[in-house]
Every structure is written in C-alpha cells, then in structure tokens.
Specification:
The protein starts with a helix and ends in a 7-residue tail after the last helix. The chain is built from 14 helices and no strands. 76% of the residues lie in helices and 0% in strands. It has two domains: 79 residues; 225 residues, MetI-like (MetI-like fold, Orthogonal Bundle). With 328 residues, it is mainly α. α1 packs antiparallel against α14 and α6 packs across α8.
Length: 328
C-alpha cells in the first residue's frame, strides 16, 4: 500500500505540473492590453505609483516580461515559497482572500454533504428493496424532482416562502443588521441562521442523483448469486441486505463520494450568488470575470490538487471496502 501511494503521489505531482502549466499558458494568452488597463486603473488611485511603475511591477511579478517557460518556472518558484502575489480585484494577498472565503463554502459544503449521505443512501436502499411498490415509485419521483430542479428556481422559491411571506430568514447575506451588537454565541447563531436556506438548497438539488445511483447499484447487488444463496440459507432479510448487499453497494458509492472532495472547497457559485454568501465560489467567479490572474491561478491550481487527492482517496477506499481488491 505504501509503495502504491508513493507511486500515485509521484504521478499526481507530474500531472499537477502539467495542469499548472496549461493554466499559466491560458492566463498568458490574455491580451497584453489588459495589463495596461489594470496598471492604468491602479495608477489613478490616490497616492499610487505611476503607470510605468505599475506596468513594470506587474510584468515582473507574474513573469509577463519573460518567455512562457521562464515565466512559468518563476511562478512555480514563488508558489513553492507560498508567495502567490496580491489579488488585483480584492487588493489583498491572494492567500488572505482565499482564507476569508473558503471556510464559508467548506462549512456549507460539509454540512450539506453529510445530510446528502444521511438522506439519499437510506432512501436509495429502501427503494431498491421495495422495487416496483408505491414506496419505490414515491422515492423515484422525489429523486427525479430534486435532480431536475434548477438551483435558481428552488432558491428563489425558498426565499419567497420563508423570507418574504413568513419572514423567518433574511433575504441574503451572511450576517444580520445587529450582528456587531450580539454576543459571540449570538453571532454564531446569526451566521447559522443565514446559512440554513443555502444548505437546504444544496441538499435538495444534490440528493436526487445519489438516491438514483444508490438504488441502481443496490438492485444489481440484490440480483447477484451470493445474495440468493444467503437467502436460501435462511438468513434474516435485514442481515442479507445490510450486511451482505450493502457492503458491496458501498464500492461504487465510495468511489463517487471520494471524488466529491473538491466540491467541499469549490463552493456553489449559483447558490452563493443568489443568497449573497461571500464564499469561494462567488469570489472566484468575480475574480475570473475581472481578470484577476493571481487569484485565478491560485484557485485553479488548488482545485487541481484537490481533484488529484480525491482520486487517490477513492482508490484507497475502494480497496478498504472490497477485500477482493489488493493493491500491488
């Protein structure tokens, strides 16, 4: 296992360098006039440096005054030291802005991920064990409805009902008007109150596909020969389903769930925008629209790292849940 993990890490490192290079080339493909525009805007700020000084600094900082290969190597050298420069849009260090926004998205993603597993997997198993019954049809209809719901429509519907008509929640934002006057516990509850509807939105629009996926895999396992043998031996149905069948259903589920690691940090762009939540999805989108090269480079490379890590975790967990798989 150690040899396998080490080999995968080395391969992932090579892939990461290639992905970072492609991202860098795309960033370098932006028109040169864009740098001039940024330098001109910054030079017009009160007490700022001149246009020529900004152009020289921006070009030197991001290797724009060098060739693609030397510029990329220069960026890699600074990245290894943890220096990703200052964000052009947010005018703070890239890592600082990332740290401010990513944990909001992580909390939302982690909580919705847990609820998704708790709700979708049991319902998928129940639908499979009661195939072609009213229960199965009901769960299938709910899953298809959740899967088909557009995020913007469902979020707007929740805001209309619970914010406008009932007045239980604010229309948007992460904190309320009286946030500064609350106690630490009150501030925590205030933030939690503002995250209820976004989390509900994320859970509802994501459970449909997992329910269907669980049901399909469970049906395949229940039709296997060893399940019929277990039933023929007189084992209780609950033991057949939850001890024998469910363990093998976990194999594809673990692979899929392991690959969802990047989603915990990627943020939910549409949901965060509709609810005015300053998470990493909203921040990264605004940065890319504004042409914020430093932040976009950092964010895209960070997502590439998480994707590679998620694939590695999926492979390892695959061997853990299935004893027949042995990694050589």
């Amino acid at each position: 296992m150690k040899k396998y993990i080490l080999k995968r890490l080395l391969i992932s490192a090579v892939i990461l360098v290639l992905v970072a290079f492609i991202i860098y080339v795309l960033m370098r493909s932006l028109p040169t006039s864009y740098l001039e525009q940024v330098a001109r805007e910054k030079s017009m700020q009160p007490g700022s440096k001149s246009f020529e000084e900004w152009m020289e600094q921006l070009s030197a900082t991001y290797g724009m005054d060098k060739g693609i290969i030397p510029g990329f190597l220069s960026w890699c050298g600074r990245a290894l030291r943890g220096d990703f420069g200052d964000s052009w849009k947010w005018t703070v260090p890239v890592t600082q802005k990332f740290h401010e926004s990513v944990w909001i998205s992580f909390v939302m993603g982690a909580i919705s991920f847990v609820f998704e597993i708790i709700i979708a997997i049991p319902l998928g198993i129940i639908a499979a064990t009661k195939q072609y019954t009213k229960t199965d049809y009901t769960i299938t209809i709910v899953a298809l409805a959740c899967f088909s719901l557009p995020t913007f429509f469902f979020a707007s519907l929740l805001k209309l009902v619970f914010c406008v008509h009932l007045g239980w929640f604010d229309l948007g934002g992460l904190i309320g008007r009286n946030y500064e006057y609350l106690s630490p516990a009150g501030q925590l509850l205030d933030k939690a109150n503002h995250l209820v509807l976004p989390i509900v939105t994320l859970v509802v629009i994501s459970i449909g596909s997992l329910m269907r996926y669980t049901r399909t895999n469970m049906l395949e396992v229940l039709n296997a020969d060893y399940i019929r043998t277990a039933r023929a031996k007189g084992l209780p149905e609950s033991k057949v389903i939850y001890h024998h069948a469910f363990r093998n259903t976990l194999i594809p589920l673990v692979t899929m769930l392991g690959g969802s690691l990047p989603g915990l940090f990627a943020g939910a762009l549409i949901t965060e925008t509709l609810y005015s939540i300053p998470g990493i999805g909203y921040v990264s989108y605004q940065s890319m629209v504004a042409g914020d090269i430093p932040f976009s480079m950092f964010y895209l490379v960070f997502m590439a790292i998480l994707t590679l890590l998620g694939n590695l975790i999926s492979d390892i967990l695959y061997a853990v849940v299935d004893p027949r798989v042995r990694i050589a």
